[in-house]
Known about the structure:
alpha/beta, 7-stranded mixed β-sheet, 6-stranded mixed β-sheet, about 270 residues, binds zinc ion, Metallo-beta-lactamase, Chain A, 9 helices
Amino acid sequence: MPISQTSNTFISAIKAFSDNYIWCIQTKNNQSAVLVDPGDADVCITYIKKHNLILTAILITHRHPDHVGGVSKLKSFCQQQGWPLTIYGPTLEATEHCHVKLKDGDSISLKELNIEFTVLDVPGHTLGHIAYLGDDNLFCGDTLFSAGCGRVFDGTYEQLHHSLNKLANLADKTRIYCAHEYTLANLDFALAVDTHNSELINFHNQVRIRREQNKSTIPSSIAIEKKINPFLRCFDHAIQESAHQYSHTPMTSELATFTVLRQWKNSF
Ligand SMILES: [Zn+2]
């Protein structure tokens, strides 16, 4: 069941592993489909067959196995079907099956879907992580989650902080299609950090009900995240004070607060 519709485009979630979302972008006009970060080929092939789709492109945000693990098998599947497939991925990461390597400012045109995507470099979770923005839909992998953000693996805290600020500056209406259903656990942390934020408390209640009903909390939006996500709110005095109480170090910059929050969350 499609959970979002913009103009002629449908975006559906294919669930994979315990909490991954593989996003499938379709159009009303034809059978073409595009997958974002297909970590598991089998669930995608089942979905494609069930909905009588033709896979024409794969968008990869970064090299982690739960995002690229299904690419090789999907490539073979498309070859068997005789479907031409284009695989897009980040320039700075060794994603072996990519046909087109992308970097900040590049744009790609998916003609079958009549969508253009702009590529944003968003390093931090990994060094070469990219995001795709088109039609006010942002596919941001493991960079920004609802009420949280990705861990720092081979990037730096400074890079991730910068990348999140870059995303926070997108239009408020931008829908956030991240790759995991982590919202409820992220909110537990957010509430520990930003205790008196009434928007956050209300959002937590809504998310708790959605999850009790086994409904997805994604997409979120930039407007929502700017109100409730502590990692986008390091300018906030209450959050800086929480980071100070936790770390017993002075919060001399937003980056210092961000770094403490991210390290705190790792052991929360
Ligand atoms: Zn990852």
